[in-house]
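re: ur question from earlier - yeah i can do the single chain one, its not a big deal. heres the input i used so u can compare w yours
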Amino acid sequence: MADNLVLYTAVYSDLSDALDDLVALAQVHEDGFIGKIDAAVIDKENGEPHIAKRLDRPRLQVIPEEFGSGPLPRQELKDAARELASDQVCLIVVGEPTLENGFDKTVTKADKVIKHSLDATTDEVASELHEALES
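and the output i got, formated as tokens:
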């Protein structure tokens, strides 16, 4: 895992709300208010985990495209996304500590948010993702 990164998982009942929050987060990033981030909105398509939208130009490639290889293990992300109920969507954001400066101000439509430091073990991160999606 990379040092000094934070992970936010926001759970939604509406895809458009998650997409709106992603756009708002991307804007504060472009404005220079927060540092490097990688973010994706994940839903289910035909019962399978699906990336509905990613930042067009992620500055920190932590969330792998289509859950491919990367610092966040592929299987843990897939397993967490499988926990989504058919009516749930999640926004996963990984970024530098400056993410905290803008996250609460821009991600306002989520039903639930979990924050976690990425100095944790892979199992702890996977557990946090599962916990956020189960309730």
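Helices lie at 15-30, 74-82, 99-106, 122-134. not sure if urs matches, ping me
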